[in-house]
Structures are given as structure tokens and as C-alpha cells.
């Protein structure tokens, strides 16, 4: 009862309205509000049927529970600040606001959103807005200007825009402290857009602290433009509440945290321009449960995770993400790509990429700049994906602590993305550019969404990582092969395929490109956990960190194509299963190394203009 305060429909009891005799002296302010000037005390639990204002303060006795009638929500503000309704003496002006609010749904649950401002179908619905939570500023049918909102309680929404609305939010200052209710439904977010709303947020400052207390949320088929704004989201400490989905990041990703700064769902289209988005952990620019038509475009924006764990952005299901002239700085991944045909593009903030209108709004001197990535572990990590495309182009720079492209795949969740990299820079401290690995993501648990058993409880590090022998032909590119294409660039680093539970091939093509490093099939070993060790939520950080020992391919083929003047400068032992070298390209090996094709020593010159397949070993003589 206390957790929802009447906001979630299924939790609102059918109580009888009990109004003490002292309320009879009230003076009506309007049809929906009652004003009481003297300090009052509520002694008994009751249903509050209409908005009441206590200018002299209010005391709620211990054990008292207040709620709204069925189908409505009750919100308390004290001196304009939203607070949880609980026992205590509140000496400033108190308002108990009764509103219908927007009905948001997720997983069969319906939530009534109490919001400071509710705009629906192009109209400011003041009767169903908690207007006492607007500390300053102006709300009209067309715009919210200079609005200040301070929520120091749970679940409360700042501004909700729904229906067929076209709306502008300018110079908003929103502070949210307290946990949210469901970040798949926008329950408790600072700014939320639903249905077909078309919303522009400009010069906003949003600070939020609390588990799943999203700063900006876009869903339905809404359109959202956030420009020249600053969003900072800090993790909460109160985790003693239940939700229908997640109240923290799945540890199985190798991450921790309980707050996504922003979230895009459904078929929403969101654009961030000239902005700063920071999460302490979990994620800064997230997406979830998207469908066809969804997109996330990020232009000249800083994407930051300030704590010890978290990702910059996420792409899932059907969404396409675009990052132009933006800057990632994260302790873990810059981007995670999940299930579906989702993908992303990294490039410059050019007029051709962003369009003339947005290009004209880029901060002066910042247009036509490249995207840069500073990632503490992995640049991009895939866990599940079905031919989703990631394009990296136009001088994009990746600087990563470990692998630049980490693809997790297994028999239950096979990932086979397409990766196109052109004229960009890829750097790794561990010297690994791309790695197709046997997934260590233990996946979903047996429990329902929101339960303690929703996620697997543990991952046991394999003691045997020897690739199985199955019917996969390691020499051919097939439907589930990884296809990675590199063009017009030079790469220093290694590329590996260490799948072992079932056959899957890695195909890498170099077009007018040079790579200096190892390309090989191999076996993997975890670097932060021993074989047989059990990894749990408490040791989440051991997930994903592996090294490879080159070894002969079994089911894990490595296929290499060199064309249009490409060069592979081999630096160490490499086992591949197919090699195509056109007449203009070459394989360069040190003097103490040799190439053996199916047991026959072969010179680099003999490979020009040919394709060889089978067992190809490049090693010391």
C-alpha cells in the first residue's frame, strides 16, 4: 500500500471517505480544490476524494494511510516539493492533489502517473496535473517555459506529454530524488512522451537520483528532440521495492547499477543534439523493447558513465542508432547491441548525415566533427543479434581498454552481426580488435519478470573449451557467419574466433586496408576467473574478460579476404580456414615464419590472385 500510494490501479483499496469535522470550515478555491488555512491533523486512514490545500501545514498521524479513489492518484507537495505521503508534521503549505493522470501499461500492469504537468491531445490538462508541484514557470497548451520541478519522493513524473500533442519544453529545471516504479513504462520519469506526441526539449537541466528513476523517457510512436540540455543520473540506494521488470541492470552483462539516464522504447524516435547525458552506472542512452520505426540519433553530444560500471548506449530489437560528432566516455562498453536486427552508425556530424535543419542547429564550430569513443573495456559488445548492421565511418576513433568489437555467441543465442568499418581508427590496449567468443552470458533465469530469479543465478567458467566437431564447414561464409569488412584504413591488432560449443565462422574482408597482427581460430580462457569457478552477481565484473590461444580451427572457421591493394602483415601464429588474395593484395610474413596450406609450404607470392581453403597455418619455421 505505502509503496504505490494509490497510483497503481490494482493496489487502490475501496475505502470509505472519512473526513474529520474540522474540514467543514474549508473555503473552496475551485471545483477541484479545498483550501484550509489553519494547521490540520489527519488522525484516521481515509480516501481523499478531491484536491485539498493546507496553507497552515499538515500533520499525518502515525499509522494513517491516505489514498485516492479508484482510478485516481494522490500526490502530496510541501512548499511546492513533491514528497512521499507518510506520517509526520509538515509546517509549510501542503497540497494533497487528486488526479486521474496518464495510464501507462507494461507487462499487464497499469500505472496512473501523477505528474506536475500533463499535456494530452494538445491541451494542458490542469485538472489532472499536480500544478502545486510547479515551483515556478508557465504551462500552456503549447509550451512549458522556465518550469522548475523538485520531486523528493518516489514514482512521481515531472512532465507527461501524450496523445496527438506538439509541445515545447524550454528551460526546464527538474530534480528527482527517489526511486521510479517501472522504467519500461516511464513511471516516475522526469520527462515522458507517449502515443504520437511530438516534443522538443530545449535548455533543460535534469538531475535524478534513484533506482530506475529515468530522467527522459520516450515511448509509443512519439518523437522527441532534446537539445542544448544536461542530464545527470545517479544510482539510488533504496532497492527494497518490487517492480514488474528490472530495477537494476542484469549482472549477466558484466555490469552493475540501477539507473538508466534515458530510455527509448516502442517505435519512438529520439534525437539528442548539443547535449550532455551522464549516468553514474548502468546506462546513459538506453533503448529497450523497440519495434520497427524506432531510432536514436545522437549529435554533438557527450555520452558519459561516471561510475565504475556501465555502458554509454544500447541498441535492441528493431531500433537503429546513429552517433554523429559525439563523444563516448565509459568504464565499460560504449555500445551494447542485443537481439533482433538492430544496429548503429558512427560518423561525422555532416549535413548529409543529420539533415539541413539539425545541421544548422549544431553548436558553432562543432559541425563536421568525428565521433570518438573512450571505452574502459569493450568498444561494442554484441549478445545475440540477427544480421544487424553496425557502420563505423568518417574518421571515427575507438580507444578501448580491451577488445574493440566483442561478439558473444552460443548455441542458444547465436549472434551474427554485419560490421562495416571505413576510414576509421581502432585501438586496443590488449591489442585485440575483434573477437567472436563463446558467450559467457548465462541468460534468463526461470523466474518471471521482476522476480529475484529472472536472471540466471550463476555462470560456471568452462573447464574444457575445445571446439566441438560438427557439420559446420569452417571454410565457407554461411547464414550465421560474422561478416566484418574493413576498408580504406590501417589496423594494428588481432582478430580471433574462439567459438567452441557449435560451429560458427568469422569472415573478415580487407578492402584497400592493411592489418598488422594475428588473425586466427583459437581457444579461450577467462582472465579474471579460473576454470570451474562460479561467477555470480557479486562478481559480475569477471564476465566477458577472456584471452585466446591460437589453435587449429575445428568448427570455428576464420576466413580472410584481401582485395584492392590490401596487406596482411602477420605478427604471430595464425590458423585460418580460407584465404583469398587478389592480384593487387598480399600477405607479408617475417623471415622466420612460413605459410603452410593443407600441409604444403606456400610462398606469399604464390597466394596472389588465388583462393585457398582448408588448413592454413602461418607460424615460425
Topology record:
Elements: E1 27-30, E2 33-36, E3 40-42, E4 46-47, E5 51-54, E6 58-60, E7 66-67, E8 73-78, E9 81-83, E10 88-90, E11 94-99, E12 102-106, E13 109-113, E14 115-120, E15 123-124, E16 136-139, E17 143-151, E18 157-162, E19 166-170, E20 173-177, E21 191-193, E22 198-202, E23 205-209, E24 216-218, E25 223-227, E26 230-234, E27 260-266, E28 269-273, E29 276-279, E30 283-290, E31 295-299, E32 302-305, E33 311-317, E34 320-324, E35 327-330, E36 335-340, E37 343-347, H1 351-354, H2 356-359, E38 372-375, E39 380-383, E40 385-392, E41 397-400, E42 405-409, E43 415-422, E44 425-428, E45 432-438, E46 459-460, E47 482-492, E48 494-498, E49 506-517, E50 519-526, E51 534-535, E52 546-550, E53 558-563, E54 567-570, E55 574-581, E56 586-588, E57 593-597, E58 600-602, H3 604-607, E59 610-620
Parallel strand pairs: 2-5, 3-6, 4-7, 14-18, 17-19, 17-20, 18-21, 19-22, 20-23, 21-24, 22-25, 23-26, 24-27, 25-28, 26-29, 27-30, 28-31, 29-32, 30-33, 31-34, 32-35, 33-36, 34-37, 35-38, 36-39, 37-40, 38-41, 39-42, 40-43, 41-44, 42-45, 43-47, 45-48, 47-49, 48-50, 49-53, 49-54, 53-55, 54-56
Antiparallel strand pairs: 1-2, 5-11, 6-10, 8-9, 8-11, 12-13, 14-15, 16-17, 46-51, 50-52, 55-59, 57-58, 57-59
Amino acid at each position: 500500500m505505502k509503496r504505490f500510494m494509490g497510483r497503481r490501479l490494482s493496489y487502490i483499496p475501496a475505502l470509505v471517505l472519512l473526513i474529520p469535522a474540522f474540514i467543514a470550515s474549508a473555503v473552496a478555491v475551485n471545483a477541484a480544490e479545498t483550501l484550509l488555512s489553519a494547521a490540520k491533523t489527519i488522525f484516521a486512514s481515509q480516501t481523499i476524494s478531491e484536491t485539498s490545500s493546507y496553507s497552515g501545514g499538515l500533520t499525518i498521524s502515525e499509522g494513517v494511510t491516505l489514498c485516492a479513489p479508484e482510478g485516481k492518484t494522490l500526490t502530496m507537495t510541501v512548499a511546492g516539493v513533491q514528497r512521499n505521503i507518510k506520517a509526520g508534521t509538515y509546517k509549510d503549505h501542503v497540497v494533497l492533489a487528486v488526479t486521474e493522470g496518464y495510464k501507462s501499461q507494461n507487462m499487464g500492469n497499469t500505472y496512473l502517473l501523477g505528474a506536475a504537468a500533463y499535456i494530452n491531445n494538445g491541451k494542458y490538462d490542469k485538472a489532472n496535473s499536480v500544478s502545486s508541484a510547479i515551483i515556478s514557470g508557465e504551462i500552456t497548451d503549447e509550451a512549458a517555459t522556465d518550469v522548475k520541478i523538485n520531486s523528493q519522493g518516489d514514482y512521481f513524473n515531472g512532465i507527461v506529454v501524450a496523445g496527438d500533442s506538439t509541445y515545447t519544453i524550454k528551460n526546464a529545471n527538474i530534480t528527482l530524488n527517489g526511486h521510479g516504479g517501472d522504467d519500461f513504462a516511464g513511471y516516475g520519469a522526469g520527462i515522458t512522451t507517449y502515443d504520437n506526441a511530438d516534443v522538443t526539449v530545449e535548455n533543460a537541466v535534469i538531475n535524478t537520483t534513484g533506482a530506475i528513476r529515468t530522467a527522459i523517457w520516450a515511448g509509443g510512436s512519439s518523437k522527441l528532440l532534446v537539445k542544448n540540455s544536461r542530464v545527470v543520473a545517479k544510482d539510488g540506494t533504496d532497492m527494497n521495492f518490487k517492480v514488474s521488470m528490472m530495477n537494476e541492470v542484469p549482472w549477466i552483462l558484466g555490469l552493475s547499477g540501477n539507473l538508466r539516464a534515458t530510455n527509448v522504447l516502442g517505435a519512438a524516435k529520439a534525437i539528442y543534439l548539443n547535449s550532455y547525458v551522464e549516468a553514474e552506472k548502468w546506462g546513459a542512452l538506453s533503448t529497450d523493447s523497440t519495434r520497427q520505426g524506432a531510432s536514436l540519433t545522437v549529435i554533438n553530444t557527450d555520452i558519459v558513465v561516471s561510475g565504475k560500471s556501465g555502458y554509454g548506449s544500447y541498441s535492441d530489437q528493431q531500433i537503429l542508432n546513429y552517433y554523429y560528432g559525439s563523444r563516448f566516455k565509459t568504464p565499460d562498453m560504449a555500445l551494447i547491441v542485443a537481439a533482433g536486427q538492430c544496429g548503429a552508425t558512427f560518423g561525422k556530424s555532416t549535413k548529409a548525415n543529420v539533415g539541413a535543419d539539425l545541421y544548422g542547429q549544431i553548436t558553432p564550430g562543432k559541425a563536421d566533427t568525428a565521433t570518438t569513443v573512450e571505452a574502459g573495456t569493450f568498444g561494442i559488445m554484441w549478445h545475440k543479434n540477427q544480421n544487424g548492421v553496425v557502420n563505423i565511418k568518417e574518421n571515427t576513433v575507438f580507444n578501448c581498454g580491451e577488445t574493440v568489437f566483442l561478439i558473444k555467441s552460443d548455441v542458444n543465442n547465436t549472434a551474427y552481426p554485419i560490421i562495416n568499418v571505413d576510414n576509421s581508427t581502432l585501438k586496443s590496449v590488449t591489442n585485440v580488435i575483434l573477437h567472436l567468443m563463446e558467450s559467457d552470458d548465462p541468460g534468463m533465469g526461470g523466474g518471471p519478470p521482476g522476480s529475484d530469479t529472472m536472471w540466471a543465478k550463476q555462470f560456471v567458467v568452462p573447464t574444457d573449451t575445445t571446439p566441438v566437431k560438427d557439420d559446420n564447414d569452417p571454410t565457407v561464409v554461411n547464414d550465421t557467419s560474422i561478416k566484418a569488412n574493413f576498408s580504406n584504413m590501417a589496423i594494428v591488432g588481432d582478430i580471433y574466433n574462439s567459438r567452441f560449443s557449435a560451429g560458427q565462422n568469422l569472415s573478415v574482408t580487407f578492402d584497400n586496408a592493411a592489418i598488422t597482427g594475428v588473425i586466427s581460430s583459437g581457444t579461450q580462457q577467462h582472465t579474471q576467473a579460473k576454470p570451474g569457478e562460479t561467477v555470480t552477481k557479486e562478481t559480475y565484473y569477471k564476465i566477458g574478460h577472456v584471452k585466446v590461444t591460437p589453435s587449429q580451427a575445428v568448427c570455428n572457421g576464420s576466413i580472410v579476404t584481401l582485395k584492392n591493394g590490401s596487406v596482411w602483415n602477420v605478427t604471430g601464429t595464425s590458423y585460418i580456414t580460407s584465404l583469398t588474395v587478389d592480384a593487387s593484395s598480399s600477405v607479408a610474413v617475417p623471415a622466420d615464419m612460413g605459410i603452410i596450406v593443407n600441409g604444403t609450404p606456400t610462398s606469399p607470392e604464390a597466394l596472389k590472385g588465388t583462393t585457398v581453403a582448408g588448413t592454413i597455418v602461418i607460424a615460425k619455421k
